[in-house]
Structures are given as structure tokens and as C-alpha cells.
């Protein structure tokens, strides 16, 4: 009998586990870890949203089963958000599905749309669910380098030409996790035209669409004429309202794709806890100054990270959007790889980051830095990094000796 189940064999060991294990060990020993590794918002959920949750939870009927596609009030609120933000009018009955966070929505889209052997075009580097959601559903991933949006779109036609069978789904993700790249509406126009030319469905992930800094607000692919013929968009309240643990997301757009997702979800869940859905509707319908405040916090952290790390000797490009910075390894460590660099950084400097290799082969040579510590902690991390860079020869020699002795 095989020791592993079929789908588990298709999943590699979690790349971030080594760094997570080291963090846990050091914390157990009393070491203070400044943790930029996970994109986990650290600010509180706005009070009026929490108050609505508490109020609704007191209703004796609140603990009953909900609806797998989301209550109508929440779906109307999601449609209202798209109307206000993007000028896109959606039918909340047929073009909006409330999901248990964007990750669940994406994974169940893959289940709904994928036949065994289907080929999916996926950016690389990318958030892991973008590839592994489809791999778990029996699909085959055609990775296309995506260190810039232009590089990615240019690679799609090449992937179509050289893939057998031809791909049938194109994944987009802007603002990007992990690279923090941003695109304008012209990019989406080109992407829609390309997808229609090659008969591709499009899944666009804009979970970070409200976390932007120096540009205009990121657009939606659904603003492009004809996009709803082929595309859906995955979105989330997690970062916009500091509600990551609440697990509220949405899939909106093409009615046929939404119907397929709704059917899959009807077999798998009964939707989120009703008070969470009511509070999520209050978040979307209520005052939005809290979103501005959260965005300003991330911008302040971004600016502090870039300036303080530059003084420490590490040039980190200022991300135009998202809650991440995407940085090349410092010159002193450029040849050691992102996994060893990340391990040494947390062991020697008490600073945790995510190795770029965890987001795909084209992420090697980079790390992702989450803007999830306050500005004081960021400046402390920079002081630690400065010493880490100054001691690089000693640190690398010790690491090589340790590996040689294993």
C-alpha cells in the first residue's frame, strides 16, 4: 500500500515550514523575532464592524445554517461596492458569490472549472493557491515568468503555442502577492483581448486592490468591455478592513462561472457564520474612512522600511501597492539562495521574511517582506540587518562549516 494519498503526493513540502520552525524554536527560547513573514494584518478590525457582529450574534437565530453562496444582503453589498468603486454593475443573484475568504473562493473555482489534464497559465512567482488550487483539482500548470506584468503577458502567447493540450484558463493577480506589482486598465484591455483570441477563461485576483500608495486606485478587469463574457474576479475584505481571520471574500463576474462555483460550494459548505456576513455587509456599506486609515498605516510602514533598510545597506524598492515589499537578496548574500538567506536572517538577526523560492522558481533570489510590524519595530529590524550585513563573512563561513559537517 502506498504511504501517501494521490493528491498529497502532488503537493511539495511547504516551503516556508523551515523558517516557521526556526521562528518557533527561537521564540520558545525567549528570542524576540521581528516577523515580516506572513501577510497577517496586525491592526484591529474597525469598531463599527465588530459592533455589528456582536449585535447580530445576540439574535437567537444567528447560529443557524446560512447560505453557501452568501446571504442576499451581503451579496448586494458586494455588488454595491463594485458599482461605487469601479462603476461596474453586477447582478447580486447571478454574478456575485460570497466566499470563505479569497483563498477558498479560488480553490473552489479550480474544482468547478478543471477537468483532469486541463492546462492553466499561471504567473511565476505567484501566491501558492494560484497554482496548487488547480493542481489539487487535477490540472496542469504552465508557469509563465512574471517578474513584470509586461513579461507575463508577453509569455502567454508563447505558452499557448507550446502547450498540449492548449491552456483554457489564464490567472491574473494585481496588485501582486508577492511582487507588489500594479497594473492599469490598459493592461486588462490587452489581457481580455488576448484571452478572447485564445479562447481562455480569466480569473483575476485583486485581494489587495484597496492597498495602494503612489498611483491611482488599481482597476478591475470587469471595467473592460466584454470582460464578463470570460472573466471573474476574486476579491477579499481581509486586508481592506483588517478582517483576515473573519474569512470573507467574493467571486464576481461571469454568471456561468459563478453558477459553477455556487454548485460546488452547495456541496461543501453552508456559508460563513451569519453575524460575520452581516458585519461584512456593514463594512462594505458603512463609512470608508477606516480604509483610508489602514492604507495610510501601510504607506507609513512602507516608507519607513525602504528608508531605514537603505541606511542599513539593503536597497528595497518601494512597492506601489499591496502590503508587501519584494526585494532582491542583499549583495553579500546574493549567491546563497533565498531559503538559506531567510534562515540565517532569522537566526542571526531575529528578522523573519518569506523566501522568494516559496512562490515559484522565478522567485529565487528574492524575499517577500510583509508590512505587518509597526514603524518602531521596522527601524529595529533595520538596525539588526545592518549588523547582519556587516558580519556577513563570519555568518556565511559559519553556515558553510555547519553544512559541511552534516
Please give the CATH class of the largest domain.
Alpha Beta
What is the helix fraction of residues, given as a range? 40-55%
As a whole number of angstroms, the C-alpha radius of gyration is: 22 Å
Order of helices and strands: HHEHHEHEHEHEHEEEHHHEHEEEHH
Sheet with the most strands?
7 strands, mixed
The number of distinct helices, counting runs of at least 4 residues, comes to: 14
CATH topology of the largest domain: Aspartate Aminotransferase, domain 2
Across the major sheet, the strand order is 2-8-7-6-5-3-4
N→C terminal distance: 33 Å
Structural class: alpha/beta
Number of domains: 2
Number of strands: 12
What is the beta-strand fraction? 5-15%
Shape: globular
Q: What is the level-2 CATH architecture name of the largest domain?
A: 3-Layer(aba) Sandwich
What labels would you give this structure?
2 domains, 7-stranded mixed β-sheet, 12 strands, 406 residues, Aspartate Aminotransferase, domain 1, alpha/beta, Aspartate Aminotransferase, domain 2, 45% helix
Please describe what this structure looks like.
- The protein has two domains: 6-44 and 290-404, Aspartate Aminotransferase, domain 1 (Alpha-Beta Complex), CATH 3.90.1150; 47-285, Type I PLP-dependent aspartate aminotransferase-like (Major domain) (Aspartate Aminotransferase, domain 2).
- It has 14 helices and twelve strands.
- The chain has helices spanning 6-9, 17-28, 47-57, 72-86, 101-113, 128-136, 149-162, 185-197, 255-268, 274-285, 289-312, 338-349, 375-390, 392-404, and strands spanning 34-35, 96-99, 119-124, 140-145, 169-173, 201-205, 231-236, 249-253, 324-328, 351-352, 354-355, 366-370.
- The longest helix is centred in the C-terminal third of the chain and has 24 residues, at 289-312.
- The model has no long low-confidence stretch (mean pLDDT 94).
